[in-house]
Protein 1
Amino acid sequence: MEKQNLDWGNLGFGYVKTDKRYVSNFKDGAWDNGTLTDDATVQISECAGVLQYAQTCFEGLKAYTTEKGKIVTFRPDMNAERMATTCERLEMPVFPKDRFIDAVKQVVKANASWVPPYGSGATLYLRPYMFGSSPVIGVKPAQEYQFRIFGTPVGPYFKGGAHPLTVRISDLDRAAPKGTGDIKAGLNYAMSLHNIVDAHKCGFDENMYLDPQTHTYIEETGGANILFVTKDGKIVTPKSDSILPSITRRSLVSVAKDYLGIEVTERKINKEELADFAECGLCGTAAVISPIGKIVDHGKEICLPSGMNDFGPVLKKVYDTLTGMQMGRIEAPAGWIYEID
Ligand code: PLP
Ligand code: COI
């Protein structure tokens, strides 16, 4: 199959229209059969639930070309499960897991020419999403929904690839105690937009959020979980009910424990502990692992010993192992890799 003529090595994290996307509609209490379409536009009521009351959620996963030239996706079952949890919380209908996985496969297969080649550093980012499409004017869930998946070829989420980031401790919250921080609702991202624009204006790459109840413990950033490494080489990651359960983080934790014999603890992390760590990084589908070199807490600079030039050694090892699995260089645990035939 002929690949698209793109400069794969220089792609940013942006939208590129690909050939086919998947659409299924929910009406009268049931999902239709779903289909692939060329039409990249959405037509809905001016009063649709998504437009009036932000009834929308999404997922993110990637398709990779392996060393042997096969196209694979990584743990799409986990995205299906997390989307189901999100939908239940937002009073949206669940799109069945087997159909979600099948739709992912259909979209990747139909856009195989857009899956970046092995070694290019790029991947095909897949965006499953769902929204309330029928009119609602009183505050209540819509009756009709649309589930879609498109793919777009992407490079690194942060400009400069693995160049360590500078983040600030945020004054604003992305989540509320007992709110929606642990689901992938569009509203969580809408409310982070002002803060990320402001962070960029102030010269920071990201906001590091604190727990919304006490503003004492580290949570996550607007689009990724956080991993820390202690000075004796152990991984520590925040435990909280208001962070998104990252599939990348959960995979990295397994890889660290089971493949690399690294001790991993999930616990509350007080912001006063930041100066004690040796390494820090963001993790997520888009970010993979992006090292953090500096954390700024209201003028106080915390410079990670791993520095501003590269990954620290522990995060580099877990990064290499996970990406090795995704690219087919290292055998992954059973059930993690889904081949597209
Ligand atoms: N946290 C937030 C707020 C996110 O938006 C994401 C992205 O999906 C993540 C964490 C990372 O999750 P995952 O590894 O499942 O992509
Ligand atoms: C992802 O990593 O898939 C995300 O959703 C993060 C961001 C692009 C919102």
Note: The helical segments are 49-53, 76-89, 97-110, 186-190, 193-201, 247-259, 313-326.
Protein 2
Amino acid sequence: MSGLRQVKIEAGAEQALRGFRLPEKLGFGVIMVPVMYVAECVDGVWGQGRLQPYGPIQLDPSAKVLHYAQEYFEGMKAYKVEGPHATLFRPERHVARFATSGRRLCMPEVPEEVFMEGVCTITAWAEPFIPGNTCQSLYLRPFVIGTQPNLGLGVSSTNTFIVIASPSEAYHAGSMRVLVERNDTRAAIGGTGAVKVGGNYAASLLSASRAKSKGYDQSLWLDPGTRSSIEELSGMNVFAVIDGRLHTPKLNGSILPGITRDSLIELARSLGHEVVEETMPIDALLTDIGNGRCSEAFASGTAAVVTPISVMADVDGTEYTLPQDPGPVALSLKEALLGIQEGRQEDPFGWVQRIPRTYYPSTAQVA
Ligand code: COI
């Protein structure tokens, strides 16, 4: 890869953006801005990045991603609620986790300058379409796929990095009802649970659809070794307030290390809460909800932000209703986090970053 990179703005990208309008109803991950960033990596060498019109990509039917799930991704957001320009939240954390995911799948890591080029270019060009109400943002989905056409099981020699962007609302409206999954597990010990790869999410869907058919929103996963301790919710980490302290499962190699999780822990401590990161046995938690020691529970994630949990149900049908939904801790942490992300509040942690001017259309080269 050369030291100095310049994005190629392909014919049609500008025109696609000119004709684009945001619909009234956004939802989550449904509307895509009409451009995407693409860069290819061949035998470990990254080529020039391109901003091109959004559309279907060509893949050989034998491409390794289609057979052996050689794919990893990130979820992050650009905000434009208070100021005229877009900001990113802790992008360096997403760069680092993306690289960890790539290494775990033996796929090429995306170097920081390529990752930031992709994320900043699409955000800068799509800036007029970043929705401006609280809880709305431009959801960014960077991902890498193994494209080598070959059914042999092995490392793909060609890979493509793509960034797509979706003007979105929060993932979940209102509270969630979750069902404890006592049988299946989301991730194996020594497996891929702690990285963000598509296969983890594919393997969660059978349990999720069983939960949905019983009237719940999500499966609550337990540890793969003993199925006795809480892990996460596929796409969200879990918190509970017990005896006034904020508890969350400690990272153990199979829980995804959420960037929102980490931010909430830091924020909570700065607001004076005691935070306990320990193994959380499910039976003790259900008992504590039943006897009132657990006053509230909530999920956290980039897409979900902070989403209260109203009910935890066991497989035998017993429902444990959280006394406070939403609870004061969830509400205050959500407000504090969104305040920083959306630019209403000071950012003492240095989490929020402006998109450098060089990525904006006026300075980019139009091919
Ligand atoms: C995110 O929070 O960014 C995720 O990747 C979760 C996904 C299930 C929407």
Note: Residues 8-172+350-359 form a domain with the D-amino Acid Aminotransferase; Chain A, domain 1 fold (CATH 3.30.470.10).
Protein 3
Amino acid sequence: MTLYTLSPEVAAAKSAGTAIVALESTIITHGMPYPQNIEVAREVEAKVRENGATPATIAVLNGRLHIGLTDAQLEDLATAKDVMKVSRADLPVCMATGRMGATTVAATMIAAHLAGISVFATGGIGGVHKGAELNFDVSADLLELAATPVTVVAAGAKAILDIPKTLEVLETHGVPVIAFGQDSFPAFWSAQSDLAAPLRLDSAKHIAASHVMRQDMGLPGGQLIANPIPENAEIPAQELAPIIAQATAEAAAQGISGKAVTPFLLGRIFELTGGKSLQANIALVLNNATLAAKIATNIAAQP
Ligand code: PSU
Ligand code: MN
């Protein structure tokens, strides 16, 4: 038996050799509340289509890995209870035991690569958490970027993370971190940060060409494309700093650890901003879906 099921739409795109963009599902189940999660998931898929590519939202439904979900499957996932947050370590366990699972950036990259999909759009990646020198909390997303040849479009990293340490780990592992159209590394809710991005490219065409160059050279690992949030959707960093500090302190006080840390922080920031963080999050995910679709169409156009 094959390892996964393609949605009819994704199967058609694969036979035609047209562009496909992978989308993750942890953002749906653990990153946003219902019903905004399902609305955003549908809008992101629509944005990919508008820009000439086919969306492939990835999740595990009753133990089956799905590459592309029908609307009914998307709804099942968004409303299911007890959905596992599935990273590299969890994916085979979730599949072998028939559970529902939402894939993180790491697991979505693995699934996309299995299905021959080169480009993936998300909001923010996991990274090195604040206090990592004591708690050792480093997301498996960073090691996946080093291992699996998928180009990931994100809006940089959230300030819940230690962004300088996140960039250092990516550098150590040889992951190209490429800011789109600017010199600084974007900081999720803010387009600019005071950190220089290691690399910069100004067109989807060049990003596609460097993806293809890595394949031709046989280099393992992907590219991280850091796409700044649209300026009209930004939230000033000084407005979020005290909220992030509070959420981080609460996580420590309540002994939250392991894979629960990121969902806990995202949920508290949503509550403490009265939903404002979610509006920005939606805008940047749509913006990333647009760029990812353009990169994917450029890759698909290569001979
Ligand atoms: N950061 C965000 N939004 C998210 C996540 C991270 O701004 O939804 C999710 C992604 O699925 C990411 C995962 O892959 O959290 C990382 O979790 P961890 O830090 O436990 O590796
Ligand atoms: Mn972690």
Note: The two ends are 31 Å apart (CA to CA).
